[in-house]
# Entry
Amino acid sequence: MSSEGMPSRHVRLAIVGSGPAGLTAAIYASRANIAPLVISGVPSGGQLMITTDVENYPGFPEGIQGPELIVKMREQAARFGTEFLDSTVRNVDLTHHPFMLDTGLTGVVHADCVIVATGANARWLELANEQRLRGHGVSACATCDGFFFKGKDVVTVGGGDSAMEEATFLTKFANSVTVVHRRPDLRASRIMQDRARQNHKIRFRFDTEVTDVLGADSVTGVVVRHLPSGKEETLEVQGLFLAIGHDPATEVFRGALDLDEKGYLQTTDITRTSVDGVFAAGDVYDHRYRQAVSAAGLGCMAALDAEKWLTEHSAPTPGRRGAH
Ligand code: NAP
# Structure
């Protein structure tokens, strides 16, 4: 399980992930003199690193760029003694104390307590131009970016609750919202469907997929294909919102922590995972709110719970097997 011959270190608290949840946990834990180690993930910083303007994070009346917000959080955590390991956890053993986190070439971390804040990633259609225009008209978060589409026409992709919720939300700003869904029927709950269907700004294109996004610097159109006929058409819109689900970044914890059927960490009492001494924070288990500020709040809670846990449990000697 461990990387033989690799450096090994022991910490009281390891925080896995460096988005708003992990970094807020680090700020709280380091201010409590726990000197946490953040294993940041590569690339680090989470979803905010691919976000442009953030206007709904409190404290920044002029808005702030996502990457800048992450840099500030990271500096704040470092100021109080957080250490960073810019690496990725490749393997874990959570059956013994201290817990073992294997980061490959950067060594093995033994930790008395762990906070998992690895987040979730929005699904994309994986079209070349979609990736190029991310943050320039292409978004996977209507709550974050809807405001920038006042008076514009946009497409939302997906047939689930998120797509209905986001399409309905976008009508507060957009002139029109076209929901493009690859099947003849929506899978969203009846109440969410009805709300969207009754909204005069929302149109539906069923049995249809998006095949391309157009625009040099920002979105000017979305190419769609009607699947039964194969007919392609360009919709002249300025925005493309993906609402096709998220994938939690929990693969490395599979078998070690309880996950739900979609791979999200299962928790009790808000932050407790199925292993005593391992806590969770942010989108890695919260698939409902998925906001930077709610992830930060959950990071705070996880750090307070971890601090309490460390106080209540005499730190086991590194390398010794021990009961919790
Ligand atoms: P979801 O239920 O998994 O729906 C994803 C949608 O995206 C599906 O319609 C799926 O199509 C489509 N899709 C997936 N991959 C695609 C691709 N590559 N190309 C085109 N379309 C694709 O995800 P969700 O809507 O994010 O909801 C996740 C969970 O959160 C659900 O349990 C949902 O009920 C819940 N939720 C609840 C609320 C609420 O109650 N307020 C709001 C949001 C979400 P198919 O239908 O063909 O599979």
